[in-house]
Amino acid sequence: MEFKAGQGSYMQKQLKEHVAKYICAFLNSEGGTLLVGVNDSGEVLGIQCTQHIEDLLRQKMDATIKEIAPQVFPNMYTIDFVPVCDIAHVPLENRKVLEITVKQTSMSSLYQTHHGHVFVRRDGSVQGPLKASDIQEWTRMVGSRLTI
């Protein structure tokens, strides 16, 4: 599970690149979840998110994921907006956590971002973009399940 606070200009300036990076890493590993609106210490902050913003973010995430190669099918991931609640479990108005979950794949392909960058999740962190030697090592690690 990876956390991003999602505050300030993050949603406009960094979200697209982080989604591409983490989705590729999860696809090239054993799946995973990216939570935007949660800081590195696990504190739930939420992101400001009206229904209109949620719809725009869904479109942006789907478009970003469609740029990943090889093709990522809709059944390989989910995008959810989880309401943030106060201490009394009352939902806070327009505060949500963006949750992108990638299912574990057969790892028969090596996924790359629209920039051609390859990322993997190894030892609890996302690594990359990988160099050719790193990709060769990764290919040896996963064996015959991977085709480039």
TrEMBL record:
Schlafen AlbA-2 domain ranges (all copies): 1-126
Pfam name, any one: SLFN_AlbA_2
Lineage top rank: taxon: Eukaryota
InterPro entries to which the protein is assigned, alphabetical: Schlafen (IPR029684), Schlafen_AlbA_2_dom (IPR007421), Schlafen_AlbA_2_dom_sf (IPR038461)
Name of this protein: Schlafen AlbA-2 domain-containing protein
